[in-house]
Amino acid sequence: MTKTKKTVSIAVAIVEDDVPAREILAGWIRDTAGFRLAGEYNDAESAIAKLPQEKPSVVLFDINLPGMNGIECVRRLKPRLPETQFLMVTVYEDANHIFNALSAGASGYLLKQMRRNELMDALKDVHAGGSPMSSQIARKVVQSFRRNETENNGETVELSGREREVLELLARGYLYKEIAEMLKISVQTVNTYIRRIYEKLHVRSRAQAVAKYANLPMGATH
Question: Can you tell me the distance from the alpha carbon of 33 to that of 26, in angstroms, rounded to the nearest whole number?
């Protein structure tokens, strides 16, 4: 007798005060195989009260919420939900919002004009350990890397050329395995580079590393 393999659904919660936008997102999740809607919240305070009990795999967060904003809410929830991935879904494209969200603990950043298939792919990606970003956002992150490399005032962090390559690919949302394939190195070597990057930047996560690196003037390579 053949046993049927049980499919594990990705539990997704939504924090969004715009009712039509929230209903669209909720409908996409409900109607897509492999996903389960774990809750809907229209403000940060409700999310803080309920999400630690729900423990969803991924939370979609708007930034512009009534009362506490989405970035501050992520900052407060991340220590209580270390295994949950937070994915910003917003209209804001400016660098301050992007890097503040990443520093707070968000693992990805999407713009609201995305299509359904883009959101579902991003949910799978972030659940698998990636950092999905809309193409415009990823481009701004990379531009910020390069701009700050030309500056040399204030705090200096020295990363090797290969370490910067790895971090730039992390910022674009690639998985460790994909980075290893692109750079023709082993996954173990990628892990070693990432550990060194975290130590040099004094951070504990991919998102914090991306945010801090993009906001620092860079020193010389070695």
Answer: 13
